């Protein structure tokens, strides 16, 4: 099957920057030759379910290799010769006794270092004191500190701050906007030395039923992760105030609430396919009832001036 196109940022040393233009992105290298498969009769249906997902398979193989080495080392120390039969038995024992991380866990871990908390501040109308206007989420898309978020998270703010995964807090400036898709591009004034950008993937082969996770700061709590599936594509959403209608949205059912706005919608391979922008609730409550919407990453990347897939 044809591999979906990706955006990725080449890791490199970075320094604190301000108003630096987005860095060029490069295509990822081709996949290495996969290792020799273990006979299906030896591993059973549980392993075949993991192997059906390439990203999951590689992570699982790394974990299993370490555990297998430990089992074989213990066997060798006991004086027993290490034969193929012993190796097969060690593989089965490892599969039966070890619990592998879930696909959602690995998806979250893949983007955790790229997700930021976005805080907007303004003056209190009566006291003139600086107050927090709201909290949202953002995702780093270029490792020089270029961040995507929702425009409604930062619109009207007199000051913007972002908090990175390592705890570093920095001021940020709005360097671009795409109001029709409720998107804003931020440039952090200071960044961690080891900052990595999230990998963005085309939505061209995204299908209803595909598993996804949402990472962000619902009600300011987080980083939090929720899992679900893509519920539909090409959806439209009209804001409760009736001021704007957005189209071509990804519908999903992973839990999202106020504070998740601007965060990434992530595949099980840890690739960002959308920016969470809205939830549908027919009541006056601003809480999740099972329908969320995300702007496809193609639109979001174009807001930052990145080339199309």
What is the level 1 CATH name of the domain at 200-303? Mainly Beta
Instruction: Label the overall shape.
Output: globular
Could you give me the name of the CATH homologous superfamily of the domain at 200-303?
A: Trypsin-like serine proteases
Name of the CATH architecture of the domain at 200-303: Beta Barrel
Mean pLDDT: 80
Overall radius of gyration = 22 Å
Measured by DSSP, the beta-strand proportion falls in: 25-35%
Order of helices and strands: EHHHHEEEHEEEEEEEEEEH
> Strand sequence of the main sheet, in spatial order?
2-3-4-7-6-5
Description:
This protein is α+β, with helices and mostly antiparallel strands and 309 residues long. Among the domains are: 42-100, no CATH class; 200-303, Thrombin, subunit H. It is 23% helix and 32% strand. It is built from six helices and 14 strands. It has helices spanning 40-51, 54-77, 84-97, 103-111, 151-154, 297-303; strands spanning 6-7, 115-123, 130-142, 146-150, 159-163, 169-178, 183-188, 200-201, 211-216, 224-238, 245-252, 264-267, 272-279, 292-296. The strands form three sheets. It has a six-stranded antiparallel barrel with strand order 2-3-4-7-6-5. It has a six-stranded antiparallel beta barrel with strand order 9-10-11-14-13-12. Helix 2 (54-77) crosses helix 3 (84-97). The radius of gyration is 22 Å and the shape is globular. The two termini are 18 Å apart.
